[in-house]
Amino acid sequence: MKKMWMSLLAAVAMIAGSAAGYAAETSKAEPVLLPGVPDKNWFTDYRQALARAKAEKLPVVALFTGADWCPACLQLEAEVLSKPEWKKSVDGKAVLLFLNFPDKKSSWPKELLEQNEKLKEHYKVEGFPTTLILNADGRTVGLIDGYMPGGYWPNNLSRILAALE
Q: Which UniProt keywords are present, listed alphabetically (predicted)?
């Protein structure tokens, strides 16, 4: 009987250690660069982005996009996301999450495509690009719906992020 309890305690300790290890591993995870992702600073895994946001006490900028087919998304990439000014404006102020809905579905892992569909439904995203600012618990605290040229998008994002500081 004593041996059985010791085995049970050891199993519970292993499971708890694994869960703690996973949480630490997730918060240290680095973004993975996939086709369409602007640069290595963008996460594609929702759980990893939230874990990093929680660890660094930052909001998440979650961009829902059709990076290889959506005209407004392509314009956002060309006019904002590829610019050094953009990178400076968000560096250290937010965790970036790229939720792509590619035309060429074979270019993205199936698990991420499924994750993105579930998130699109969960957050009731109806068009692209849609940018949600989330807290580290995944609750929406800001929204930029669509894209408008002339600084509208980055100015709104800067205003939202400043309000969260």
A: Signal
CATH of the domain at 136: 3.40.30.10
Q: Report if residue 15 sits inside a domain.
A: no
- The answer to whether position 97 is within a domain reads yes
- What pTM was computed for the model? 0.80
CB 62 within 8 A of CB 97: yes
CB 148, CB 76: distance < 8 Å: no
140 within 8 A of 132, measured Cβ to Cβ:
yes
By residue range, what is the domain housing residue 128? 42-163
Query: What confidence tens digit (pLDDT) does each residue in 72-90 have?
Result: 999 999 999 988 888 888 9
Q: Are 118 and 141 in contact (CB under 8 A)?
A: no
